[in-house]
Amino acid sequence: MTVATRYPSLVEAAERHPKPADVTYAYGTAGFRMKANLLDSVIFRAGVLAALRSKKLDGKTIGVMITASHNPAQDNGIKLVDPMGEMLEQTWEAYASQLANAPTIEELLAVVDRVIAANKIDLSKPANVVYARDTRPSGPALVAALADGLSAVQAQHRDEGILTTPQLHYIVRCLNTQGTPEAYGEPSAAGYYKKLADAYHKLVNGKTRLSPLHVDCANGVGAPKIREFAQVVGEAALALIVTNDDTETEGSLNYQCGADYVKVNQHGPHGVEMQPNGRYASLDGDADRLVYYYMDNDRVFHLLDGDKIAGLAAMFIKDLVTAAGLEGINVGTVQTAYANGSSTNYLTNILQVPVSCTQTGVKHLHHEAEKYDVGVYFEANGHGTVLFSPVVLQAISDTVSRTPAQALAIAQLRALTDMINQTVGDAISDLLLVEVILTHKQWTLSQWDQAYTDLPSRLVRVVVKDRNIFRTINADRQLESPAGMQALIDGAVAKFANGRSFVRPSGTEDVVRVYAEAATRHECDELAFRVAGLVFDNAGGLGDRPAEFL
Ligand code: 16G
Ligand code: MG
Fold this sequence. Notes:
Layout: H1 3-6, H2 9-15, E1 32-35, H3 40-56, E2 61-66, E3 75-81, H4 90-101, H5 105-118, E4 128-133, H6 139-152, E5 156-162, H7 165-177, H8 189-204, E6 213-216, H9 222-233, E7 240-243, H10 259-265, E8 279-283, E9 290-295, E10 301-304, H11 306-323, E11 331-336, H12 341-350, E12 355-358, H13 362-369, E13 374-378, E14 384-388, H14 390-398, H15 404-419, H16 427-441, H17 445-449, E15 457-462, E16 471-473, E17 478-481, H18 485-493, E18 500-505, E19 512-517, H19 521-538
Parallel strand pairs: 2-4, 4-5, 6-7, 6-8, 11-12, 11-13
Antiparallel strand pairs: 1-3, 2-3, 8-9, 9-10, 13-14, 15-19, 16-17, 18-19
Helix pairs in contact: 3-4, 3-6, 4-5, 8-9, 8-15, 8-16, 11-12, 11-15, 18-19
The structure holds 2-acetamido-2-deoxy-6-O-phosphono-alpha-D-glucopyranose and magnesium ion.
Residues 69-70, 284, 286, 288-289 line the site of magnesium ion.
């Protein structure tokens, strides 16, 4: 039976969401992401795909998140969430792109039938899908397109309204584990707040509270959600000052604020008057990234990015595992090539934890982190989490403690497994993790920052004719193509003390990214622009040659 005979209303519904003729879509590192006015057909079709994925998995609930994270307000995007709250399986990303690009309804139906055949999908199986969106003005119309797609193939679906991306991931996992030994929690925002708040209370119980934390919410969904959380956790336990919380003014989302802005520009967000020794953090537009920062007494800005968070978390958890007497449990970390060389050095040589390096993109880090008993993964941009394997969870519940100190460590580890979002990086959950550790240590941000000093680093974007000719190997650290390019990069790097540079095509923008670090700011910038120049000259650079020093 073809999909059209099974669901006669699908054709008519698809006609209401025609594909624009001259646009090519790609389900990239973070789903589909582009100008919102080009997304109607993509989102309708993603609804159909989500229903098929659910049928394929015996009616397990699939999640759909409508967001474009840290992109400007006029963009939007969509990504699918698999049953345990993880990113959509990679083979299905290709289906998503094929569906989105089918030029006509007939071809769309043909692609759907091919997906059904290739996966032996039984259309009589139920389909369950939940979805949510961030605060973008284009959200409601796109949600309507999604619902249209889901209804057209008779999926059961539920609108969870406005949520952060990690909250939706949480709810998906809760729904699919309810009533099983892996039950993850109450499938609602209220359940999420309660789970995190209870765990946080256990972890900071009896400790002196830190000074208030200013949280820049990028004028996005993090603002209302962290406020809701603050109500549940209570001011006595956690003092937050919420800033950049304007989700109403058009164009304010991510504009000169938010985690990405702060990380890229290495200064505080607009709308926040930084004071020496104040404590500051920024979320991104869908609240799955977090960075901290402060200003020292000389009013110099210092960033504590994902690498610093990874170092802090790995140190704390490693000590806790030792105190809990969990011999044989390995704590490992996962980074990408963007991790600052000093952080890798700190993890490897000071903390002495294993460090893996993967390609950029959350799903790569997540899967690598699953290989450790406790896997700490963070991208330098502030996206990350800590995964606890079933082996650790078992060890935590089986271990009989011999001393009160050991019992306390085990209780604290257990609370951490509840507080840290196990599905995906989560700015609210990560913020609690950092606050717990700083509370335990009674550290200022500057004390945390002492762990190591970042090497100066620099990112340069190069516009080229065709970025697809750039292919990386060795976890993005080297280029395999264009031929000969890597040798040129190596030649440039060799001239600099502590120099490191790599080039990769962006997965979210039509550019090639050049990263460089070196012993001094000047050398680092020089290396970055030398390599950017090599790319520009030898691989079809367009527009102005990247130049600052050369
Ligand atoms: C996306 C990825 C992020 C990655 C970034 C790289 C997810 C959920 N997000 O935002 O992990 O760091 O892309 O962007 O996977 P780029 O390819 O443009 O450099
Ligand atoms: Mg994000």
